[in-house]
Write a structure and sequence with these properties.
single chain; alpha+beta; Alpha-Beta Plaits; about 35% helix; about 10% strand; RBD_domain_sf; nucleus; U11/U12 small nuclear ribonucleoprotein 35 kDa protein; RNA-binding
């Protein structure tokens, strides 16, 4: 607990998928993808990564000129790279701003986050692709953030930092296979076992379905028989009354 920090110092997809970084099992399939990914940062990107800001959630109509106008308030800018689609040329909604001085970088990181540009509240953070060891982008199942509705939340970043874990004794539970402190060696074989288990569950569910139909049919026949007996008793009562 002494070296705990709310912001990730090294990227681990399994930790990023956990609210306090203590999970031992991935809770969604995207984490599996990130753990199996072998991502290499884009070597075509130039500039000093430690002087570069990542700017996201931009209005698709926002231009480089508008970004330069806003971010030049914090210091001298060396370069702005607005990421665009290679085919259409349209903005993808995020950009990278490189400053000349670290002082300007820190000031923009502190003050520009959640600034409104073209009716959009932007998100500003340090560049992570070339500065955070083990970084896996969101398109491969990694990244930070994510929507709550999708169930693919990622923690350890500025937008959603880790929560401090509760100090609980490490009690082994053989029934659930818990308590293992060793780091698991994830492989493609593990993913196959996971998918095979899902298929087996679906097959067993399909096998149980005809039994349910038969039980429902048996229940219907029982109800019909009971109604016939009631009708026959009613006839007997009428005959007695006559």
């Amino acid at each position: 607990m002494s070296d705990w920090a709310p912001i990730a110092k090294e990227y681990d997809p399994l930790k990023a998928g956990s609210i306090d970084g203590t999970d031992e099992e991935p809770h969604d399939r995207a984490i599996w993808r990130a753990m199996l990914a072998r991502y290499v940062p884009n070597k075509g990107v130039t500039g000093e990564p430690h002087l570069t800001l990542f700017v996201a959630r931009l209005n698709l109509q926002t231009t480089e000129e508008k970004l330069k106008e806003v971010f030049s308030r914090y210091g001298d800018i060396r370069k702005i790279r607005l990421v665009r689609d290679l085919v259409t040329g349209f903005s993808k909604g995020y950009a990278f701003v490189e400053y000349k001085e670290e002082r300007a970088l820190l000031k923009a990181h502190r003050d520009a986050n959640r600034l409104v540009i073209d009716q959009h509240e932007i998100f500003v953070d340090f560049e992570l692709e070339r500065t955070l060891k083990g970084w896996i982008p969101r398109r491969l199942g990694g990244g930070f953030g994510g929507k709550k509705e999708s169930g693919q939340l990622r923690f350890g970043g500025r937008d959603r930092p880790f929560r401090k874990p509760i100090n609980l004794p490490n009690v082994k539970n053989d029934f659930y296979g818990e308590g293992s402190s060793e780091k698991r060696n994830w492989s493609h074989e593990g993913t196959r076992d996971w998918r095979t288990r899902d298929r087996d569950q679906e097959r067993s569910r399909d096998k149980r379905w005809p039994d349910r139909e038969r039980s429902w049919a048996w229940g219907d026949s029982e109800r019909e028989r009971d109604s016939k007996e009631e009708r026959s008793r009613a006839r007997e009562r009428k005959d007695r009354d006559r």
